Amino acid sequence: MSGTHAHTAAFVRTSEIPPSLPPQNEGGVGRWMRENLFSGPINSILTLIALFFVIRLLIFVVPWIYSGVWTADSLSGCRAVLEGARGACFSVLTDRWHQLLFGSAYPHDATFLSFMTGVPVEDLRFTSGVRENTNFFQEFFFGYWRPVLAFILLFVAIAPILYQDLPRKMMIFTGLYPFVAFWFVWGGSIWLPITLLIGLGLAYMLYSNLAKQSFFMGVLAFLGVVIILFLNPITMVFGLLDFLRDLIAAMGWERGDNSMMLADRFQGAASIFPLNAHVVEFLSSIIPIELQSVASRDIGGFMLNMILGTVCVSLSLPLGIALALGRQSNLPVIKWVCVVFIEFIRGVPLITLLFVANVVLAYFLPPGTNFDLILRVIIMITLFAAAYIAEVIRGGLAALPRGQYEAADSLGLDYAQSMRLIILPQALKISIPGIVNVAVGLFKDTTLVSIISMYDLIGLIRGPVLASTDWNGVYWELFSFAALLFFVICYGISQYSQWLERKLQTGHR
Amino acid sequence: MTTTTDPQPASFRLSMLLNDTRYRSYTFQFIALIVLILFMSSLGMNLVTNLAEQGVPFSFDYLGSPAGYDINQRPIDYNNQDTHLRASIVGVMNTLIVAVLGCVTATFLGVIAGVLRLSNNWLIAKLMAVYVEAFRNVPVLIWILVIFFIMTAALPSPSAFRGDDPASSMLFNSIAFTNRGVYIPWVQFENGFDSILVVPPVFADTYSISFLGLFNINMSLWLVIITLLCGIYMAVKVAGFIQQNYGRAFALLPGFVRLAVYLAVALGPAIIVYAILLSANGAESERSLRFSLSINFVVMLVVFLLSLYVSRLIRDWAIAKQQITGDLPATWHMRIAVIILPTALTLFWLGAYLDYPALRGFNFSGGLTIRGSLIALWLALAVYTGAFIAENVRAGIQAISQGQTEAAGSLGLRPNRIMNLVVLPQALRVIIPPLISQYLNLTKNSSLAIAVGYMDVTGTLGGITLNQTGKAIESVLLLMIFYLTISLSISLFMNIYNNSVKLKER
C-alpha cells in the first residue's frame, strides 16, 4: 500500500512538522486561570471573594511588618519611632530573644564570649538584650554556646535515624548524644555523664551477652546493673522489707513493733550507694573538668519546649511499644494492666496529669523524697505520650497479616525474637505516620507546662515579657514569633514523615 | 500405623515454672501481679504516711464548705457563699457549654474546609491548605491566647459606644463587641410561666463505708451508684438481646419509645433504689444541687420534639407511598410547616420577644453576655479542631474510590444524588470515628480555659478550689473522674456506632 502511495503522491514530507502552539486561549496562563480559577460562575465568585480577602489581609499585614521597628528599647520607644504610623514593634524580639529562647536565668557565658571576640569581660554589658561591643551572632553562638551547640548536635544525632542512607557509624554519636546534651545544658562535672555512660555501657554489654540465651534474663541483668550502680539497692531491699512488715501490720495480722526500721539500721552499709556518686566525686577531685552548673528552674524558654519534646518522645517510644505489646498479649493480667493504663491516660487531659506532677505526685512518694519539677513533668508527659503511641503501634500490630505471626512461630523463634526480628519492624513501619502525629501533638502540648507556672516560651511571653513595663501590650509580635517557631518545627516533622512514608512504600503493606 | 504419644510428663518440677511454656505464662503473670500489688500498696502506704504527717485526712468534706470566690460566667445561679460543690457544678456546666459550642462550630468549619480543599478552584484549595497547616502546626494554647488578646485588648470598651457620635457602634444595632464581652439579644417571655426552683433531696443518713480508711461516702450513695452501673450494663445487654431476637419488630416502634425503653432499663432501678433509700433514711434538701427549671423552655422543647416527630411521620408516609406507587410525593412544604408553625404559635402564646442589650451606666445590660474568655476559648478550639476535622473529611471523601462515583453515574443518578446516596454514606463510615475522637480532644483541650480565666471545671475545681483548700489529691481525682466519664461514655457510643455501620462481610 505504502509503495503505491509513494509513487502517486506528488509531495511527501521527509521530516516531521514541529508541533504547533495551541491556540492562544488554549494554553499558558489564560487557560490555567480559566480551568483553575474561573471554571464556572460559582467558582469565579469564590475566586473573587478569596482574592478580595487575601489582598485585604496582605494590605493589612505587609506594611505592618515592613515598617516594623527593630531597635527600640521599649514599646513607647517603638511608638516614638513610628510617630503614629502602623508598624510592628519587633524590638521586643531583639531585646528579649535570649529570654525567649533560653529562659530568664540561663547563664550567659561571658568568659567564652570575651575569649572569642577579644572584648574584655568588663566591657561586655549584657543586660536585657542591650549589647555593647558585640553583635547578635556573637552573643548567640558564643554567649550561649552550650544550648546552641546542644541544639546543633541534636541534628547530627538524629540524622542517622532520619536518613537510613547515612553511615551507620553515626549511630554511635546518637548513643552518646543524650549525655553530651545533658552536660552542655545542665553543666556540672563532666564525670557525671561519663560515669553514667560507662555504667550503662557495662549494663548493655551484659545484656547483649545474656540476651543471646534469653531475652528476659538479659533485661533482668541490665536492670540489676543499673540498680547497683546508680540507685540504692540496700535501702531499696530493706525499705521493701520494712514496707512489707508495715503492710502486714496494717492488715491487722501482726502488731507492728516500734523497733528501728531495717533501712535505718543499715544506714552505714547503705551509704556506699549509689556507687557512681562516689566515683564522680573522686574523679572530679583529681581531674576537675566542669561547666557552670545550671539549676533546672533556670532552664526555660523555647529550649524547655525542645528539651521536653525530644526527651519525652524518645522515652515514650520504647514504653509505648511495651504497652502495645502488653495490650496484644494473651496473658490476661498483663493485658488488663496495659488496657487500664492506656484508657485512663487517654481519657484525661494532659493538664490534669501536669497537676498531678505539680501537686499530687509528692504524696505518693516516700516521705522526704523530692525531685525536680522538670523531671516530674517529664515523667508525666512521657506516660501521656506513651499511651497514645501504644495505641498507634497497636494499630500497626493489628494491621499485620496473621501469616507473619505464624511464619515467625514456624521458624522456631521465641516471643522476643519474633517480635524483634519479624513483627515490630513491619508494625513500626506501618505506624510511622501515626507516631509522627503523636510526636507533633506532644511537642505542641509542651506549651501546657506554662499553666503549672513553668517558664517555657509561652510562660515567658505571658509572664516576664508581657508583664514588664517596657513591653506590656506587644502581643502580636511575640505570639507570631512563638507560632512561627512551633510551625517551622512541626511542619518540618510532618513533611519528613510524608517523605518517609513515600520512601518506605514497598507496594504492599 | 503406630501412634506415638508424648511421654507421660514426669512429676512437676520447680524448674518447669520457668522452662515449660505451659507454666511459664502463669509464672510471669504471678510475678507481674505481685510487683503490681507491691507497687500500688507502696504508693498507698506513702500516701497514708504523707497525709498523716501533714495532718490532713483524705475526705471530700471540703466540697460542702463555702467556696468564697466569684465566677464571672455562670449558666446557673451561683454566688460566693455557695459551696465548692456548687462551684464545681458551675465549672462542669461551663466545660460542657464550651465543648458543645466548640464541637458544633468545629464540625461546620472542618466540613467546609475539608470539602473546599478538594475543590478544583486552585486558589480556594490552596487557601484551605494554608488554613489547615497553619492551625495544625501551632499549639492550641497560642491560638487561645491570641484570640483572647484580640478580645480584651483590641476591642473597644463599653464607653466607646456612648454619646451622640460614638467611636464604636453595635452590629445591626443589636450586637455589641466590647472588651468585656459580647452582648447579644436574647429571648424573653412576656406572659410565660415562672420558673420552678428544684432542690433535689439527698440522703441524710450517716452509714458510711470506708475504703482502707480513706474514703467516707454514704452507704446509700454507694448503693445507688452500683445500681446505676448495673442498670447501664443491663441496658447494653438488653439492647443486644432485642437486636438479636426482636430486631425487626422493635425497629417499628417510634424512636423515642425505643429510647425510653433503654433509659428505663438503665436508670429505672437506680431511681427506685434512690427513692426507697430516701424514704427509709430521711431526706435532706441539698442547696448545692438546686436548679431552676424553666417551664417556658420545657414547653418549647416538648412542642419542638413533637413537631419533629410529626414531620418524621410525614416522611414515613411519603416513603410508604413511594413503595406502592413509585412516586415520591413532595412533602417538604408540609414538613417545614409542621415544624415551624407550632413552634411559632407557642412563642407567640408565651409572648416571646427579643431583649436587646443597651448601654446603661458604665456597661451594657439586657440581652445575653458572652465573656471574652468564653469566645476566645470557643473560637480557638473550634478553628484548631476544625483544621483536624478538615483533614478527616478530606481523607474520608478520598477514601471512596472513583469507581463508586462512576458506577452511580452510570446508573443515571444526578451529581447531588450521587453525593447523598453513594459517596456520603460510605465516606461517613470513614469520617465519623476520627470525628468523634476529635470531639473528645476538643473537650479535653477545653481544660486550657484556665489560661484565659474562663471558669470551667479545671478552673474551679482544679484551680481556685484546689489552691484555696489545698485538697490536691481529692480535687485532681474528681477532675480525672469527670473527664474519664466523658471520654469513656463517648467511646462507648463510638463503639456502638462502629458496630452498627461496620461492613457486614462474610
From TrEMBL, chain B:
Location(s), subcellular: Cell inner membrane; Cell membrane
Swiss-Prot/TrEMBL keywords: Amino-acid transport, Cell membrane, Membrane, Transmembrane, Transmembrane helix, Transport
PROSITE patterns for this protein: ABC_TM1
Keyword Transport attributed: yes
Annotated InterPro entries: AA_ABC_transptr_permease_3TM, ArtM/GltK/GlnP/TcyL/YhdX-like, MetI-like, MetI-like_sf
Chain ranges passing through the membrane: 26-48, 96-118, 138-158, 209-236, 256-277, 289-311, 332-354, 374-397, 476-497
Domain ABC transmembrane type-1 residues, every copy: 92-494
Organism superkingdom: Bacteria
Membrane topology classification: Multi-pass membrane protein
SUPFAM superfamilies in alphabetical order: MetI-like
NCBIfam families for the chain: HEQRo_perm_3TM (TIGR01726)
Family listed: Belongs to the binding-protein-dependent transport system permease family. HisMQ subfamily.
Protein's UniProt name: ABC transporter permease subunit
Species of provenance: Parasulfitobacter algicola
